[in-house]
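Hi there, hope your week has been kind to you so far. Do you reckon you could talk me through the fold, stretch by stretch? I've dropped the whole record in just underneath, so have a look:
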Amino acid sequence: MTDSNSKWLKDELDRSIIRELQRNARESTSNIAARLNVARSTVHERIARMENSGVISGYSVVLSRNPSAENVQVMVFLEIKQQETRKVLHRISQYSEVRVCLSINGDFDLFVSVEAPRIEDLDLVIDEIGMLPGVLRTKSYVVFGRRFDRRYKETAQRIAAQVFSDTP
């Protein structure tokens, strides 16, 4: 185990406990202990230590299907007045419909993915974003269908890769 790992996970038992919690964060410490062949108190103490040290920062719900799969998605490219970039980013971050905002190079400065249940909702949001001070121009594309989207289905795999990688 490298020094960078020691900040996060003490040993293979910590990794095994994390894997069990990732499978089902509501699993009892008794059941986890039985599967790992260790005492319940050991699992309880390890989880408490990892929570206190920040290795485990919370628990969440994993939905059985992607709730945004039925939304309409629009990809918007924005050209921004350079001096206004921070203000524009702050304003864009206030829209719950904006799912992703990336800085890009080329003719545009930002790529924004916007999702809503209806195209009419997206029309209003895109108009508002286009009128923000500092936005010079926009170009929008409606997404007709998702051919594949690795972000949702592979969430657990990404978390596991992050937790068990050699880098923090």
